[in-house]
Amino acid sequence: MALAEAVDIALCANPQVQSTWAAIKVQAAALGEARATYWPTVAAGLSRVNDRTTFPGSKLQPTAVRDNSKNIGVSWRLFDFGGRAANNRSATDLLNAALASHDATLQKTLETLIGAYFDAQTTLAAWQAKLTSEELARSTVETAQRKESRGAGAQSDTLQATTAFARASLDRSRAQGDYRKAMSMLIYVLGIPAETQLQLAPDLADDSHDMGKDLDTWLAQAKDQHPAIVAGRAQVEAAREKVKVIRSEGLPSIDATGNMYKNGRPNQGLPSVNTTEKVAALTLNIPIFDGFANKYKVSGAQAQVEQQQANLLDTTHQVQMDVVKAHADAQSALGNLESSQLLLQSAQNALASVQRKFDRGASDILEILSTQAALADAHQQRIRCLAEWRSARLRLLAASGGLGHRDISVSQ
Questions:
Q1: Torsion 264-265-266-269 (CA) sign
Q2: 139 neighbors 162 (Cβ within 8 angstroms)
């Protein structure tokens, strides 16, 4: 399984991603509801009426009327001092905030998955390195035994080599256990059955990178496109539009209405003859006094704007701090990456040289064991530096809001 495949599986199974997608649908419906206020509303009614009238104490005969009563009405708001427009813009901003929140959730999910995937890759590499060290230690034991059998080596050399081999076997066993735990965590993050057997894709060194940009460029990128900041800006704009909506509720509005009634109005008795009534009206609504309720609503809405602005400022500071830390880590890890490769090559060359000398009897067991230990440490340092570089690089991309499938594919 490659990292890009793991990302696809995790994003499909993650409940938080599904929740934010549902939130987008909710806000999209709210936007449609806001736009609906620009259209007229039409309502119709139909009723079957049985109207019977009696005259107790009188010689008049009772009367009975049975007929259908019908009505239809049209209402259309023509003018409202921008309340509907502001509500429409507020709903649009909230939809944009939901989209940005969805992106932020995707970024967080990617960070978690990438961390679990690279932990598994790192522990796998460490296990493989310990296997190599174990094979080297086994080879040293066999060489020491052959030399002892020929009388060219001491028994103490064989015992020391055997001890080193036992230690290498123990380290290999522990590394294997760490790998199994890391794979279990990766399977959990993927959301697949626990008994699933996975095989990670070949571990390739990440030589392609774009760390040439300075810190200011990364900070500007984060400020422009980080989903959390984008969502915060949209929420501020939505709160501002909400102030306009509430303020317009205390201003005049104009409505146009039209109604037609057949055989009387709803909930009234039937007339003695068939009737048709048509009504058209243009209504000016002027709020005069509401106990200062609208004033307090406007004040509350303005306070919400200030609250959203403070949240946006806090989010921006937090994102910028994450970018600064990730940039410093990435620069340091990039420098360590080259040094660890030189260390590993030097340790491999040193071991090859000492092994040739040991085979010819020009070196003792202590020197070869020391060189093997140095190689094992160099392998460990190389694995650690690769893990730190990948983690720091992708953390920087995530902190700046630019983590996507393209970056994941490059990082494999």
A1: negative
A2: no
Sequence length of the chain is 412
CA distances, 327 to each of 104, 109, 253, 293, 400 (Å): 20, 21, 55, 51, 10
Residue 261 forms beta bridges with which residues? 71, 277
270/386 same-domain check: no
Per DSSP, the residues of 178-221 read HHHHHHHHHHHHHT--TT----PPP----------S-HHHHHHH
CA angle 51, 53, 56 (to 5 degrees): 160
CATH number at residue 64: 2.20.200
Q: What is the DSSP letter of 81?
A: T
Identify the domain containing residue 302 by its residue range: 3-39+82-250+293-410
Q: Residue 297 sits in a domain of what CATH number?
A: 1.20.1600.10
Is residue 208 predicted with pLDDT exceeding 50? no
Identify the bridge partners of residue 42 per DSSP, sorted by sequence position: 74
**pLDDT tens for each residue of 341-355:** 888 888 888 888 887
CB 383 within 8 A of CB 324: no
* Spatial CB neighbours of 15, under 8 Å, sequence gap ≥ 6: none
Q: What 8-state DSSP symbol labels residue 46? A: E
Rounded to an integer, what distance in angstroms lies between the CA atom of residue 34 and that of residue 238? 13
Kindly report the CA angle at 407 between 405 and 412, in degrees rounded to 5?
A: 95
In the sheet that holds 276-285, the strands lie side by side as 41-53, 63-79, 253-262, 276-285
Structure tokens at 309: 């602005």
Question: Would you call 172 helix, strand, or coil by DSSP?
Answer: helix
Taking the C-alpha atoms of residue 46 and residue 234, their distance in angstroms, rounded to an integer, is: 46
Calpha distance 367→346 (Å, rounded): 15
Q: Report which DSSP code applies to 328.
A: H
Q: 29-85: per-residue pLDDT in tens?
A: 999 999 999 999 999 988 887 777 788 878 787 877 777 888 899 999 998 888 999
Residue 302 to residue 308: CA distance in whole angstroms: 10
Dihedral over Cα of 164, 170, 172, 178: its sign = negative
- What predicted TM-score, i.e. pTM, was given to this entire model? 0.70
- Residue 44: which of 223, 349, 259, 203 has the closest Cα? 259
Examine the domain organization and report whether 157 and 27 are in the same domain.
Answer: yes
pLDDT attached to residue 410: 44
Beta strands in 263-355 (DSSP E): 276-285
* Number of domains, the chain: 2
Tokens of 224: 């422009």
